[in-house]
Design brief:
This protein folds into two domains: 52 residues, no CATH class; 291 residues, Rossmann fold. It is built from seven helices and 20 strands. The strands form five sheets. A ten-stranded mixed sheet has the order 1-2-16-15-20-17-14-10-8-9, sandwiched between helices. A three-stranded antiparallel sheet has the order 3-4-5, with helices on one face. Strand 6 and strand 7 form a beta hairpin. It is globular and about 55 Å long. The two termini are 32 Å apart. The N terminus is likely disordered. InterPro entries: Metacaspase, Pept_C14_caspase, Znf_LSD1. Belongs to the peptidase C14B family. One of its GO terms (cellular component) is cytoplasm. One of its GO terms (biological process) is proteolysis.
Length: 409
């Protein structure tokens, strides 16, 4: 144990705890570094990103295939993850190359126009994997509830929220790997001091062996897009590079990851644990290699559904009405019941609700009634399933007093 400059106790290393949101890994997962990939030349792999009326270009890194934002007019770019230099041709004047997996035209959405500091933007992703062996029942419900929470409780403009679900008619709002990547870059594009950004994901999560040497336990955490069996998963290194590292001073990002193995899905440097005395301490998860996993001065905080080696439930045991993700339900319930004043109070409320759902789902912390927010959105019914074994986690780019720091979006 060592002492962090803030005075908080720091424990080094990841500890493991232990049927949820975890798919069967595909043997040909293209996100695996040893998978058999077809790698087109970078100049044929460019995608447009509209930002404030200008056209930014995304190119895939020639080394690790991570999408990179090419500065206007630049002939090459160096990847912050693997260090490879990718040389590109001049951006095409005609329409961009369509997503090869969908063969569609340019996306119909772009970031909000430049405005005064203090903009609010969100990406909400809910994946049900319909008609597959990985199907989940509650993820689209989660997405709808989260959108309602952001617009009604936290004044997020409706047109500043990107929804990625299978219900969308726009092909670029289907939660494929390509579209989730583009949405993550949209979220951070042009971010400024005072901005409040939210990334919510409800779907499958998994783990795979890490070959970069930056994971204490040797495993990367991943998110599973709708097409993960053919296009591969989104690895935590890429999520960190897209959502965390570019965050500028004065901007704030909150991630809510309702998936299996999601404890450190953003690869943030510090994870909040409760010690044997019932006190929250911060574990130091900074890579021993020295790779920077923090922001560019901004503040990044993540709530996740469970520890890295736990699973997250898709269940009706909490709402009593229909299926939801346990983590999403408990987070919204904490806000609805006035328990969202600090990060510590939210985390305590979420953990207590899940812990008290063990006996068939009939006993909930603070009462068994579904919150008004969720009841107004969800209909239907199914038997409760109870017996939840997951512990929501809190990670951050820096340590803080979880009971003193006010929560706000």
């Amino acid at each position: 144990m060592s002492m962090h400059p803030t005075g908080a106790s720091i424990y080094v290393g990841k500890r493991k705890r232990g049927k949820g949101r975890k798919p069967t890994p595909h043997p040909n997962d293209s996100s695996h570094p040893r998978a058999n990939k077809r790698a087109p030349k970078p100049s044929a792999n460019q995608s447009p990103l509209v930002a404030g009326g200008a056209m930014m270009m995304l190119v895939n890194c020639s080394g690790c295939r991570t999408p990179l934002q090419l500065p206007h007019g630049a002939p090459c770019i160096r990847c912050a993850i693997c260090g490879a230099v990718t040389h590109v041709a001049a951006p095409p004047a005609a329409a961009p190359s369509p997503d090869p997996a969908r063969g569609a035209v340019a996306p119909s959405w772009g970031p909000p126009p430049p405005a005064a500091h203090g903009r609010k933007r969100a990406v909400i992703c809910g994946i049900s994997y319909r008609f597959s062996r990985h199907e989940l029942k509650g993820c689209i419900n989660d997405a709808k509830c989260m959108r309602h929470l952001l617009t009604t409780r936290f004044s997020f403009p409706d047109d500043s929220i990107i929804m990625l679900t299978e219900e969308q008619t726009d092909p670029y709002k289907i939660p494929t790997k390509h579209n989730i990547r583009m949405a993550m870059y949209w979220l951070l594009q042009g971010s400024q001091p005072g901005d409040s950004l939210v990334f919510h994901y409800s779907g499958h999560g998994a783990q795979q062996r890490s070959y970069s040497g930056d994971e204490v336990d040797g495993m990367d955490e991943t998110l599973c897009p709708l097409d993960f069996e053919t296009q591969g998963m989104i690895v935590d290194d890429e999520i960190n590079a897209a959502l965390v590292r570019p965050l500028p001073h004065g901007a704030k990002l909150h991630a809510l990851i309702d998936a299996c193995h999601s404890g450190t899905a953003l690869d943030l440097p510090f994870l909040c644990r409760m010690n044997r005395s019932g006190q929250y301490i911060w574990e130091d998860h900074r890579p021993r290699s020295g790779v920077w996993k923090g922001t560019s001065g901004g503040e990044a905080i993540s709530f996740s559904g469970c520890d890295d080696n736990q699973t997250s439930a898709d269940t009706s045991a909490l709402s009593k009405i229909t299926s939801t993700g346990a983590m999403t339900f408990c987070f919204i319930q904490a806000i609805e019941r006035g328990q969202g004043t600090t990060y510590g109070s939210i985390l305590n409320s979420m953990r207590a609700t899940i812990r008290n759902t063990g006996g068939g789902g009939d006993s909930l912390a603070g009462g068994g009634a579904v919150t008004s927010l969720i009841s107004m959105l969800l209909t239907g019914g199914s038997a409760s399933t109870g017996g939840l074994r997951q512990e929501p986690q809190l990670t951050a780019c820096d340590t803080f007093d979880v009971y003193a720091k006010p929560f706000s979006l």
